[in-house]
Amino acid sequence: MTDEDEPGSTPRRTSAWMILAVVAAALLVCCCSAAVGLLISWSAGLFHNPT
Question: How far apart are CA 19 and CA 31, in angstroms?
Fold first, then answer.
């Protein structure tokens, strides 16, 4: 029986942490790009009331 066959083995736990890290990084990139887009739109005057 190898380490990979055991339910609580270290390689499986490491891959789960790696997946969580990738998901967290993707969410961070998406949120930052959305914030930058909103900032550019606001600075361009797209959110101001038309006069």
Answer: 18
Secondary structure of residue 18 in the 3-state scheme: helix
Q: What are the b/e assignments for 20-33, b being 16+ CB within 10 Å? A: eeeeeeeeeeeeee
CA distance 3 to 27: 32
Amino acid 37 reads G
E strands in the chain: none
Radius of gyration of the chain (CA): 21
Residue whose pair of structure tokens reads 């736990």 in the numeric block? 13
Taking only the tens place, the pLDDT of each residue in 4-45 is 555 555 656 678 889 999 999 999 999 999 999 999 999 998
